[in-house]
Amino acid sequence: MKKITILLFSIILSVSCSETSPEDLIDDTPITETVKYTTDVFPIVQSQCLSCHNDNFSSGNNSYSSYSQFRDATENGNVIDRITRSVGDPLLMPQGGQLPQNSINLILQWQTDGYLEN
After folding, report:
1. pTM for the whole thing?
2. Most buried of the four, 5, 64, 89, 92, by CB within 10 Å?
């Protein structure tokens, strides 16, 4: 009976555990709705950019505290270049590591959609 219990436990454990590769974490689902700053992009900016790019501490003289500031930095600055650089590139932003691909895709789609605010 103990052997059956151990065997059963081993089978359940081996079926329930699996490795997750970085590719499994990438969401490349096409964006089908219009992307807007307030609902889609600002949460990314708030969580990933504002700690360094705010009105009180504007790293690189870039503050992204408002829609117009982030739009200008995306449209006329180097936001797209910096967030799409390869991992390991010293100019990649944010400095803590690359944004998730779905966040990059949202920002790129926001650009394509014409930088809509609301």
Report:
1. 0.73
2. 64
Q: 40 lies in a domain? A: yes
Please write the tens of the pLDDT for every residue from 36-53.
999 999 999 999 999 999
User: Is 113 among the domain residues?
Assistant: yes
Which residues have a Cβ under 8 Å from the Cβ of 20 and sit 6 or more positions away?
none
- Domain containing residue 49: 33-118
Q: What is the pLDDT of residues 81-103, one digit of tens each?
A: 999 999 999 999 999 899 999 99
How would you label 31-69 residue by residue, b for 16+ Cβ within 10 Å and e otherwise? eeeebbbeebbbebbeebbbebbeeeeeeeebbbbebeb
Alpha-carbon span 71 to 38, nearest angstrom: 12
Whether 107 is in a domain gets the answer yes
Overall number of domains in the chain: 1
DSSP-H helix ranges across the chain: 2-16, 42-48, 67-75, 79-83, 101-112
